[in-house]
């Protein structure tokens, strides 16, 4: 009976090599005898290997499509040669066993560095403009001061791992229809370190690190804004034995201000003035980030006019100088007038009978 290789892999007859590869990878992982202990798993694994061997080879696939059969050639199909047809079996078996199937060399996994930490800090707009130094508390793991991070009671307590002979990985044999193939993975006993500890440090119990709350002084530069992040090297979590610690990233959040709005390094404020000040002109005091400053209002100033006070904004974080303060003038119209004020305004109105368009 002619075997339906397409049906075996669950692909269409016009399937690409990439689709065949994906189908094989999925099924090989599902039915591999070392992963699937069902009684028919081995036979099923043989079938999908045979199907992939034919359909991955253009010449054999063409012959199979025409005649319903394809010879594997002298000596049978070489499992390793599937790489010639776009199959990366090292990566496929890496996902099964965590190692290379043909025994190629692999470096020992080194100690894992510590994780980075994040700290969110809220500051005021004035603090952002001025710059400030703050003391914060960080709960994290640090290198054990007793054993200096080795995890051992003494240096001589660190010995070569007998499981992997100090290599950091172990070999295993995977049985396939095409022979026995070696795999290698991280040593479970030493976790890829290549060494184990006979007597653990009593303070950290062999971890090489302990829990601690550290106090850090952090300098927030003038000009910081929401989203500014500061990196404190080595202030994160401690790494595995003898590995470097992670870093601490401080993320700045600037609070909303009751008076000012910030737009980049410029600040914006609305100032109400009386009708007479707008009409006749005046000098007024306006709040700035550092106290108050005088602003000249020219005669005839219209409501919603914006004046720029140079360099009264937030200092530039990168570079010299500062932003500006933008002052929007709001002319207030009095809601209640005295009799005399009404008469004066009527008189004023009579002298300006012409409309805006005359």
Task: Please characterize this protein's 3D structure.
This protein is of the alpha+beta class and about 350 residues long. About 20% of the residues lie in helices and about 30% in strands. It contains 8 helices and 15 strands. The strands form 6 sheets. Strands 10-11-15-14 form a 4-stranded mixed sheet. It has a 3-stranded mixed sheet with strand order 1-9-8. The protein has a two-stranded antiparallel sheet with strand order 2-7. A hairpin with a 2-residue loop joins strand 10 and strand 11. Helix 2 packs antiparallel against helix 3.
Keywords:
single chain, 358 residues, alpha+beta, four-stranded mixed beta sheet, three-stranded mixed beta sheet, 8 helices, 15 strands, 22% helix, elongated
Number of helices, counting only DSSP H or I runs of 4 residues or more: 8
* Unreliable segments of 5+ consecutive residues: 72-86, 97-108
Instruction: Give the strand line-up of the largest sheet.
Output: 10-11-15-14
Name the helicity range.
10-25%
Report the sheet-strand fraction. 25-35%
The helix-and-strand class reads alpha+beta
- Spell the H/E element sequence: HHHHHEHEEEEEEEEEEHEEEEH
> Biggest β-sheet, characterized?
4 strands, mixed
Q: Please give the radius of gyration in angstroms.
A: 38 Å
* Overall form: elongated
Q: Give the averaged pLDDT, no decimals.
A: 82
- First-last Cα distance: 103 Å
What is the number of beta strands? 15
